[in-house]
Amino acid sequence: MLLRSFTHSNVVMILNSFVFLLCCLLVWVWMKWLRVKSYWADRNVLYSPPHPVFGSLTFLQKENPAIWLKNLYKQFPVSYCGVWLFWRPCLVINSPDIARRILVKDSDNFRNRHISSGSSDPLGSLNIFTVNDPLWTSARKRLTTVFTAAKLRAFQSVALHKSKLLVERIAMDNKNGVRTDIRNIFTDFTTDVVGETVFGVSSNSIMNEEGPLRHITKELMTYSTYRGLSACCVFFIPELINVFRFKFFPKDLQDYLRSLFRLTVEQHGGYEKEVTSNRDLIDAILKMRQDAVKEGQEMSEDFLVAQASIFLQGGFDTSAVALTYIIYELAFAPEAQERLYEEIAKTKERIGDKDFDATTLSEMPYLNAVIKEAVRKYPAMAWLDRVASKSYEIDENLTIEPGTVVYINTMGIQNDPQYFPEPEEFKPERFLPENEDQITPYTFLAFGDGPRHCIGERFAYQTIRYALAHVIYNFKVKKIENSKRPSECSFEKKGMFLTPGETLFVIFVPRM
Questions:
Q1: Membrane-spanning residues where (predicted)?
Q2: Which residues have CB under 8 Å from 146's CB, separation 6+?
Q3: Potential cystine with 64: which of 213, 319, 392, 491 (Cβ 3.0-4.6 Å)?
């Protein structure tokens, strides 16, 4: 009887203790939530009330972040506003002048990014896109040599050859009566270009839609629920990466990329063979490692694989998507398309039997204006994220604390009629040399700016120019009857980048 009473007393005491601790926890969470909820109000910053769990990210998996940022820009037509990445306050910058200060003038205080991956994901956490200081400074310095003018010239023969195959592929599809899925065909093209220039892997995805890397790029284009959740954590709440073991690249792809990298290094003669050529980016990466070793610095294999992997991801998808939007816009803008064709045709007449080269293409003003207008309307990433390393005065009314996340609202700024009249219209003329001086500085940020601007910008432009010049020179692009206008098309809901949410088709009509 005494034992039963003692046991009962213990159970009651344990339950009471549990209830007490639970109440304490709930009170702590509630007090924490009140501080989080009032964060921007306490600083007199405009904001939209946060959700108690998701903060401002209630759109996740329901719409693309670009739409959220575009709507936020319209909702708060001021220099900045406050949002929450779950419970973490974030300042969204809508002002080009403040963007300039953060990205360029005061960039030393904003070297790091919020986007990150965990220690359990070396390929995701060590690549130049996500890595932070002090490793970023060293990596950026060394990787800048990868995209020198000399190396880009070495790569142009690949882009030229693949562009000719692209023309053949379109002609073949036309002959067979196949409707052209433009994103698919351009991804075949960029996969081949990037595969050969990054890994030195020669493939023919353009003609047969298969190849050593094509299954990887197909998987990277597909957003399952798991990949969507992984991306949400990497981009918005990286603290959860290690908890749930999420990865920037799916594990099976990581294993394949490591194997491919090792095989390619072996074909190049191994790590110790002195690099004397610029055949591909693997040569440049190996040279970077050899230089680091000479200076007494260690550079892990995962670090090297991470750079090759992010160049593959960034190189194939952003260029393919840009080409997709360009061609689709031109199908609805016949006058712009004809003007572009005339420029290409006149250039071809001038160079005669010679092939287009990178220099010739870069000197074609309307071609370059078309590309810039497309990435203005459809920036690959709708925001530029930075983290303040120390307190920083935004203006006389606001000083942010160390560790504050800052988003430059690229999507909002680049679609603001104040800077780009009729922003929904496709008007390449905005970016012609005689008009560019009318563009407000730091309102065109498709590739970022400052020390952390896109390292592959010139490579992307070169790849897009080659494909676009060859396609428009050989084909007239027409819209399919009853197809959606560009402004009516949807975007990928589960992805973080601004990619099409539906298949886009056009008709290619041979010019000759």
A1: 12-31
A2: 281, 284, 285, 288, 311, 455
A3: 491
